[in-house]
């Protein structure tokens, strides 16, 4: 198949093209490795510079070409140039199917391109984009929902999210496609060496949190519980890596350390250095529908994990109740942290590879080509 992919260029603080980062890089690469011709068009909302790169794909007839565009400082001129360039590219490439997502505007773009070029399109939802601020733009929410209804297929990042989408989109096939990891990067390594590389104490008991350290993850409760735990245990340290939030500063305590935002290549060291990794969440749409990729990263490193008993991770970790705490219950959180530090539980899970996920996506795209009506309207046959 010839597959045209449309993403935003910057994702979770990384440049998808330059950094070859996570889901938005790995899925197109996996499709190319399956023998498909893949062209990826990435729009930057900041000044990242125009770029084109042809990635080699070994042992297959597939191809993978990346093209990066800038919206520009005032957006209007940059978006017009982006539209003209991608229109020319699509006319030359003549794709069989379109794939897009990464934010609400790109979902809306899929509907527009599907109708304009008379092609089926599939939408990838690695998050519930409708809950993001961009859908407050005039008309965006209505266009977003229309684009979902017109899709030939949707991939959702978690099973609870997929279930919710199926309830509202009964005529559109929805496939669960969790974000996963690079097993060569995330694997068990020597914790003492990892601590030395990060400048962390060798003898302390270290609990760590990474990513967004914000109120919408319930980070204030974590901080309150840790202030109590630090007073009870002189060997305990809390280490943070990621982005602080001005409304939720960490405790001013000598055994609370902030490492800043670490490069993705250092995260395996971070997780391996910990006695326990926390993945805080609260009971919101985000918490119920998200599948934090870092959970697989932590488990692949062999580090004990504790997360809130909600959403996808509550289902995944149900056989290991020691790895779950009740959200918004500080007493249970404190109890479960102590339990995991005393008697650590390390779940053994079959973690899917990016090749596995690309294979599922390829099947959905092929069905879209075989059964989806051009112009962004799905048919009942696609549900079989």
Task: Describe, in short, the structure shown.
This protein is α/β, with parallel strands linked by helices and 384 residues long. The protein contains 14 helices and 16 strands.
Helix count? 14
Reading off the top of the CATH hierarchy, the class of the largest domain is best stated as: Alpha Beta
**What percent of residues are in strands?**
15-25%
Give the CATH H-level superfamily of the largest domain.
Glycogen Phosphorylase B
Oligomer: single chain
The rough form would be described as: elongated
Tell how many strands the DSSP assignment holds. Answer: 16
Query: Can you summarize the main beta sheet?
Result: 8 strands, mixed
How many domains?
A: 2
CATH architecture classification name of the largest domain: 3-Layer(aba) Sandwich
CATH fold name of the largest domain, please?
A: Rossmann fold
Low-confidence runs: 376-384
Mean pLDDT: 92
User: Which class of secondary structure composition applies to the elements?
Assistant: alpha/beta
Radius of gyration: 22 Å
């Amino acid at each position: 198949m010839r597959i045209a992919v449309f993403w935003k260029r910057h994702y979770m603080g990384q440049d998808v093209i330059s950094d070859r980062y996570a889901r938005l890089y790995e899925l197109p690469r996996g499709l190319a490795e399956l023998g498909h011709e893949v062209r990826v068009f990435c729009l930057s909302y900041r000044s990242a510079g125009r770029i084109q790169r042809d990635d080699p794909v070994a042992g297959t007839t597939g191809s993978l070409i990346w093209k990066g565009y800038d919206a520009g400082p005032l957006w209007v001129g940059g978006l017009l140039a982006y539209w003209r360039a991608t229109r020319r590219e699509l006319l030359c490439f003549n794709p069989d199917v379109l794939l897009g997502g990464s934010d609400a505007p790109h979902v809306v773009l899929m509907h527009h391109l599907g109708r304009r070029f008379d092609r089926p399109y599939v939408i990838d939802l690695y998050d519930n984009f409708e809950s993001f601020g961009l859908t407050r733009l005039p008309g965006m929410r209505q266009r977003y929902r229309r684009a979902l209804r017109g899709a030939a297929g949707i991939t959702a990042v978690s099973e609870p999210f997929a279930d919710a989408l199926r309830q509202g989109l009964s005529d559109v096939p929805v496939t669960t496609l969790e974000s996963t990891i690079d097993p060569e990067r995330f694997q068990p390594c020597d914790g003492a060496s990892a601590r030395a590389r990060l400048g962390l104490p060798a003898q302390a008991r270290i609990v760590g949190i990474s990513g967004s350290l914000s109120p919408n993850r319930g980070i204030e409760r974590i901080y309150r519980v840790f202030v109590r735990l630090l007073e009870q245990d002189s060997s305990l340290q809390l280490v943070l890596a990621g982005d602080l939030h001005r409304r939720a500063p960490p405790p001013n305590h000598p055994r609370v350390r902030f490492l800043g935002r670490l490069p993705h290549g250092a995260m395996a060291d971070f997780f391996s250095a910990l006695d326990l990794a926390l993945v805080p969440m609260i009971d919101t749409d985000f918490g119920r529908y998200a599948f934090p990729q870092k959970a697989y990263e932590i488990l692949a490193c062999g580090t004990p994990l504790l997360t809130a008993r909600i959403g996808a991770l509550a289902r995944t970790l149900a056989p290991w109740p020691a790895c779950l705490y009740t959200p918004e219950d500080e007493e249970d959180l404190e109890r479960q942290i102590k339990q995991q530090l005393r008697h650590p539980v390390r779940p053994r899970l079959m973690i899917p590879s990016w090749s596995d996920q690309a294979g599922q996506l390829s099947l959905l795209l092929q069905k879209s080509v075989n059964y989806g009506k051009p112009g962004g309207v799905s048919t009942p046959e696609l549900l079989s």
